[in-house]
Amino acid sequence: MAAVQETIDQVKSIDVTEYKYGFVTELEVEKPAKGLTEDTVRYISARKNEPEWMLEWRLDAFRRWKTMTEPNWSRVNYPPIDYQDLYYYAAPKKGASPKSLDEVDPAILETYKKLGIPLREQEILAGVAPENRVAVDAVFDSVSVVTTFKKELAQAGVIFCSISEAIQEHPELVKKYLASVVPVTDNYFATLNSAVFTDGSFVYIPKGVRCPMELSTYFRINEQNTGQFERTLIIAEEGAYVSYLEGCTAPKRDENQLHAAVVELIALDDAEIKYSTVQNWFPGDAEGKGGIYNFVTKRGDCRGRNSKISWTQVETGSAITWKYPSCILRGDGSRGEFYSIAVSNGMQQVDSGTKMIHLGRNTTSKIIAKGIAAGKSDSTYRGMVSAHRKATGARNFTNCDSLLIGDQCGAHTIPYIEAKTATAVFEHEATTSKIGEDQMFYCQQRGLSEEEAVALIVNGFVKEVLQQLPMEFAVEAQKLITISLEGSVG
Amino acid sequence: MAIVTPLKTAAEQQLAQQYADAKAELPGGPAVRKLREDAFAGFEAKGLPHRRLESWRYTDLRALLREARPLATGPGRLDAARAKLAELALDATVVVLVDGAFVPELSSLEGLPEGLSVQTLADALVSGRDDLPRVLAGPSVAADDSGLMLNAALMRDGSFVEIAAGVALEKPIAIVRLFSGENEISVYGRSVVLIGDGAKATIIEVNACLGKAPQQLNVALVVEAGSETEVEHIRLVTDQSEGSVGVFSLLATVGAHAKFDSFALVCNAATVRQQHFVRYAGEHTEVGLRGINLLGGTEHSDVTLIVDHEVPHGTSRELFKSIIGGEGTGVFQGKVVVRQHAQKTDGSMKSNALLLNEGATMFNKPELEIFADDVVCGHGATVAQIDGEQLFYLMARGLPRPQAEALVLQAFAGEAAEFIADENVRALVMSEVEAWLAAREAASQVSTV
Amino acid sequence: MLEIRNLVVKIADEDKQILNGLNLTVNDGEVAAIMGPNGSGKSTLSYVIAGKEDYEVLDGEILLNGENVLEMEADQRAAAGIFLAFQYPLEIPGVATMTFLKAAMNAQRKARGEDELLTPDFIKQVNAAADKLGIAKDMLRRPLNVGFSGGEKKRMEILQMALLSPSMCILDETDSGLDIDALRIVAEGVNALRSKNRGFLVITHYQRLLDHIVPDTVHVMSQGKIVRTGGKELALELEKSGYASYGEAA
User: How many CB atoms lie within 10 A of CB B364?
Assistant: First the structure.
């Protein structure tokens, strides 16, 4: 209940029409000319001092991308994207490739401070118990500006750095695992990403190591007309464990910005990866102007026996979300989980869900998806659970519920449930409803305002998913959900 | 975007030729002729439905029809049909179509009760009545199905039934489609049942093949039920000859304060695609779509339905039970659409499948598409095996395994048949289910000996 | 007579061993109680005797009237005279109770080479047995155990026991979930079936059931073995001292 009260207070204290993270940081930046050609790809690779093999890899992806067409099967509508009218790289000029925080442009540090993400380790340490520490990789437009706690993590054998750095420092790992889960030609946006990805995080947890702190990456798109092409790769060796968090924001701008990310997770025998996202890109204004196009390919490969990958996402931002964090359950006894809250308001369009591909024996998966649609938004859950012939003993439980607020929004559920082995047990249930009038009346009769009652009921609706998030994030996410729904009642 | 011109398959080319050859002699006045032309043009543009179309994802008709069989032109031998009718012993007003053609001598159309009129589709098509284009079109959600377009272009015969307002029929109307199975042929048939306001009727559709030759069937039933009607529709698709491919469509438009229930049994049925398109044309209407699929061998049964809640206060219930053995494949694609103004819609959809052995496959795709907020909609889908705990309980009471399994399976399937209001029809359905289970039980006993 | 010799059982697909060389004899006409802490393997024992598939017998034998039942399927054991009153009777939607009772009785008769029951005889038998247990006709018309209360389910088990007239009855925690009135009705039903040709194995955690179904023998089970055997006074002793000395998990 305390959290509910806090949510309500938070809502009251905020000018709700204002996207809280919508400010712009004025910086001098370096960017190539607009448009996408082989030269752009070469430029990005050169800026990152990449070895020849990486450049060739990118160019190969680019050539393949040119032969592909944009997918149109999802339930989202947007005007055609002019891929030649975008910047594919933007880096702050001052303090490029900083060796320490002191070299980072103070304006950037100030930006992160405003976003509530302290980057100075001593600031983080103040008043935080060691077990609650979070290491942060901060990605600003196309570059990683800083990664904290690297030294301490290195002592445990954990590698946590930007993908650009990993290409330089750990090429053998990158070569071995990059695109091993999401093939270069997996889909249009993944191929585009492969050609022009700029930065993102790289995590390697060695055999038997439990990562001593939470790892996180904070993505910020600042520049105008700039696409952000994040690439993240996480590898958990045998028996390793890591919990990774991702946050994202962008300034309010009138035009749409593109974020096309690829995230790959690899869990070997008995390893576990917990991946949490609080996605709060600028959703556009009430009329649907501006906002981020979030076209993301996220996939985890439970490669080893008894490995586990768990996706938790709280999606409140973006004008358009096209995102299906998935698990390939290859190892015998492996487990995949997907917990999702998708909140849409205004003119937002969400087409999101997951795929659980059961390949190994005795694999299990669980899907809990909660969609809340308000305003004139459209929210689609699209999911697939499939068990292949050899995936004997496959188990899945799926629950996807939608809550509708107002009569201008839409909520859709499109699950594909495919059992090709007779030993599979799949259970799927879905409901769509509005907030019960009886529930509202009961709350109001007990003295809660309409707003408070909605907050309370919505919090109850999403609780099962929120519980999956690390504490800090859960509180933040709960606030976000309430703020996103502001003005939807009445 | 590049315009893709699909290469025509051999079957598509043959169909074009068949239509060109037959169109002059297919029944219908100018309006119907135009309807056929438009439908075939639509079909030519789209081709046979294939797996890259979302609604045909699991049943690739283009791949299944390697060759278009010759169009049936008249009924085959009638002795087998006569025997089958005797076996069915339907206490109903019976319209018999053999190989797609109306057979008056096997039908029982003497002394129809007042308010019931039955003619052949062919007669209705040439009658020039001006409601034909509307009636034949059916619900709008069916408009872009190229399987139905092909049916509209090539439909030759069927029954055209009209029930006057306020008439409560005592006996069901049975549309019995029998296929002689002597030659490899294709049949395009369509029947229409128009039910006036306040009328009550039970419509039974029987589809059975009597011989061994594979058939290509594409038949549709159009039902227009007025307001305050009570309609029960039962479809049996049984005993299809090996290698047959059948597409069975139901196009239903239901008025206000009405009750429309449909039940379909598929067993021993080769490859079957059922598609139900239901539109709510009035408020406070209840629709129930249910069915049982019993599959073995390499049988394939696809149930695809679109329930279109266009108006408020509609209730829909879907319940499909599939029991799949051998290398059978079950498909359930259910889509409940709730349009923006269809407030207070209450929808519940369920598909439950039991897989009996390795090799059996089930694809479930229960979909909700909702644009109204004040609704209660849900769906559930399960795939599982016979519950081992239940089986142990029954065996611990002395039931041998095959009998215990049959009991559990009969109960599982029976949950969908429970909703059939007409007791005789329910008994007919359950006797088919029991016969299928008994055959399976016998086979399993043979194999364990 | 039921004889169990050196029974060693583990859960199939797991390494966990539940019964560790259990020995037990229940004579015809004898009511034997098995008491023991949670997790001592009591329910496993009842399932293994009845022939549930989830277990693997590693060693030992179970003899009913001198015949080893381990190779038999559950239905064959039932026909041979073993009856298990389940702790949690299964709900089977769609199967009417009467249909089920008739199918079970006839299956057993058939296995024993007897003629099937005629419907009027069957109905007469069921009604008579149901009356004794206070089972309403309405319950017999409903699907098996679906929507029955805990007490109704247990009475339905005893009804089946009466109709199937087994020679060896196993009652698995029959008292669980019963209030005192329901317990009395169920116990009376059981007592009425006591005879010199029929053995009972009453599995229970608590002594209170044994106030109503008074045992001839009490066995204490712990860690998959019978660790002590005595008369009915042993149950009272256990009620006072608890299972602490038999290793009940905290």
Answer: 28
